[in-house]
């Protein structure tokens, strides 16, 4: 069926798989004979318990999450995790942060409120266009964890190799790359992701953390909602969760399983990104902003080098059915977010459009 949808390159909230949207539409007046939609349903009902249990089981299967890791569904998006991570994991009151863009910078500044936070490495010197060498960093012997943002949504860079944490726990913000490729969960102590980039509706973060990191001996001023132990003990149902987002995320997990899982996603995502980056590398008008080996598969950032021309491209693209190509307000330029749900045809059509634009605007 043709819904007259545009190609949506938004960084988040972002494109969703059409079959998932269709399923939800079909269930919105009566979810499987319950006589109501999921948004009208008690979070203590058996029907909802099945929804959250299946979501968790499907995610565990998709990512191959070991049994000694908990999966938590927490409100407050990824931003709340910037505070929850230090509040819950700082035992010695020390943490090492690697700052590679706007999101790790925010997390770093937030963590500073809770302890001694070291700037272990940064790519700020070149406007976050690369990932620093993290093979032999001066990790603080007292650090409770080393923190990265594995894919910088705004700057368009990604870690190809995880840092050498010298035995310390690795904490990763995976918001804009979550489920884009296989992930070896046991390399991490904690992974979190705001779901509105690559999974579902905004307002939910998924936290995957190793059980032995869950502490009960926290400062008593830590708000109850911000304690991982509370969420873990209550199966993410301490209070009313974001039922709707959990339901939709569960649909996406099933959709990904049916589509071949995360290896298949990686293959598709690499193909899609190559189409766009190859064009940028051959273009005389556009160029990618991130050094080649650190380019993101998900957020492709590029510029013409002329702000006015950038704006012209964005406007012409929108008129042609390619929406949300404007770069983040803090960096300008252009950005095409090509998450799991963006079909290859969308990227091919965008490249055809950019090629045509370039030909028509030759100096
Ligand atoms: C979008 C984003 C965030 C913030 O997510 P919210 O859900 O808006 O709090 C944090 N980190 C990364 C990498 C992001 O892309």
TrEMBL record:
Q: In which pathway does it act?
A: Amino-acid biosynthesis; L-serine biosynthesis; L-serine from 3-phospho-D-glycerate: step 2/3
Give the note describing cofactor binding and stoichiometry: Binds 1 pyridoxal phosphate per subunit.
Q: Which residues carry this modification: N6-(pyridoxal phosphate)lysine?
A: 197
Q: Which domain of life is it from?
A: Bacteria
Q: Does the keyword Transferase apply?
A: yes
Instruction: Name the Enzyme Commission number(s) assigned to this protein.
Output: 2.6.1.52
Q: Using the UniProt record, name the top-level EC class of this enzyme in a single word.
A: transferase
Per UniProt, L-glutamate binds at: 44
GO molecular function, one example?
O-phospho-L-serine:2-oxoglutarate aminotransferase activity
Catalytic reactions of this protein: 4-(phosphooxy)-L-threonine + 2-oxoglutarate = (R)-3-hydroxy-2-oxo-4-phosphooxybutanoate + L-glutamate; O-phospho-L-serine + 2-oxoglutarate = 3-phosphooxypyruvate + L-glutamate
Give the chief site where it resides: cytoplasm
Q: Aminotransferase class V domain: which residues?
A: 6-350
**GO biological process: any one?**
L-serine biosynthetic process
Q: Which cofactor does it need?
A: pyridoxal 5'-phosphate
Its signal peptide is: none
Q: Which SUPFAM superfamilies match?
A: PLP-dependent transferases
Task: Give the binding site residues for pyridoxal 5'-phosphate.
Answer: 78-79, 103, 153, 173, 196, 239-240
Q: Which Pfam families match?
A: Aminotran_5
CC terms in the record's Gene Ontology section: cytoplasm
Spell out the subcellular localization from the entry: Cytoplasm
Regarding protein family, the annotation reads: Belongs to the class-V pyridoxal-phosphate-dependent aminotransferase family. SerC subfamily.
Q: What does this protein do, in the record's words?
A: Catalyzes the reversible conversion of 3-phosphohydroxypyruvate to phosphoserine and of 3-hydroxy-2-oxo-4-phosphonooxybutanoate to phosphohydroxythreonine.
Q: How does it assemble?
A: Homodimer.
Recorded protein name is: Phosphoserine aminotransferase
What's the encoding gene here?
Answer: serC
